[in-house]
Specification:
D-amino Acid Aminotransferase, Chain A, domain 1, binds adenosine-5'-diphosphate, five-stranded parallel beta sheet, 447 residues, Rossmann fold, binds magnesium ion
Length: 447
Amino acid sequence: MKILIIGSGGREHAMAWKVAQSPRLTKLYIAPGNPGTAQCGENVALNVHDHAAVIRFCREKQINLVIVGPEAPLADGIADALTGAGIRCFGPSQAAAQIESSKAFAKNFMARHQVPTARFATFRRLSDALAYLGQVEYPLVIKASGLAAGKGVILPETKAEAESVLREMLEGGAFGAAGSEVVIEERLTGVEVSLMAFTDGKTVAPMLAAQDHKRIFDDDQGPNTGGMGAYAPAPILTAELMDEAFESVLKPAVSGLWLEGNPFVGVLYAGLMLTPDGLRVLEFNCRFGDPETQAVLPLLATDLVEIAKACVDGKLVETEIRWKAGAAVSVVLSAKGYPEKTQTGQLISIGVLPESAVCFHAGTKANADGRLVTSGGRVLGVTAWAQTLPMAVESAYAAVGQIQFDGMQYRKDIARQALFTDLKADGCAKRKSGFESGWLRKAEKRI
Ligand SMILES: Nc1ncnc2c1ncn2[C@@H]1O[C@H](COP(=O)(O)OP(=O)(O)O)[C@@H](O)[C@H]1O
Ligand SMILES: [Mg+2]
């Protein structure tokens, strides 16, 4: 199969790395890719927002499958354009992608399908939003409804702050169109965990749960980032909680989208919070998470191409998805000044990595002399996998020791929170196989 992956970050390098291992692959292109993906296939300088150009490229190269990494092209309707042109696309339609691209849609959708989530209301008019602030008693979170590159969520400390945030979003143009509608929701407390799942729109197969580390410094200190590291499986999502997430979140979400006429094909990502009152969905994403994917894909034993193809062909129910025992840890090496004032252009040196480790590229590029330099905030995702989580941690940090660039910063505590927990990875792995979706047959009858 000839495959095109769309995107250019650490997630896409992890996807390309996994796809490159597929016995089905004959040729891999990545658009636009990065120096890491260039080791897995051929990077192509396509403007992925120009759907006609992407379609032309796919026809010319006889691409059999397009796999979309980031949310923006999906929200743009790239899957619809490709599918309309008869090109298979692993990634949801624009309508299904609303589960991420509109937080207002996602919250109302969850309410329609009884998916557990924080109490909320959505607003387009400032006066209504301000009036609502006066009515609620509990602490709040304010979210720009549209895509805001992870910056559109504010946890105001006071009512005055909440008011000014609402003013900025609804009248001040903060976040542009993404902030023209807001979600105000109840602030929850608890541990966060990411649960991604493959789905063909009818069947859903969960992946291993993962945990991200959002703050720049150890012990969750300092400002938020795009994610400083991840590990999988996350033992906090016990077998019971996995069952609960599967039954109360993944199944109703996938069947709900199907029943509403927007079947979701691709990776559905549920951002969960384990609150004292039970599991709640903070958000859905319509694609692989980053950096979680960098820790999850190395543990996937099944061919990713086979899974993606099964999803696109509506045959996920026939595909057995297997996971390796053990754990994986991904440590993000970020650039000097990240996240506030990222400095780029520093020379990167990568030594010999331990076995079962890989260095995924995110913010790197080749300079004029062809040498590898930093070109973004999150530079590399250093991932290692092993039989146990402590071994994976040790190996990941040994790999980090092989890498240098000026101003390199990284967290020393990735996965520490899970180190002393019994992993029970085997139990998780068994649960996460493809399954027969009896619930769907019922749903199909209802349509
Ligand atoms: N209802 C909530 N209660 C407490 N914290 C929240 C809530 N919603 C979001 N958060 C925090 O804000 C972060 C970002 O919110 P999320 O909905 O995931 O948006 P995005 O990833 O698009 O920025 C979450 O990871 C979580 O830490
Ligand atoms: Mg999030």
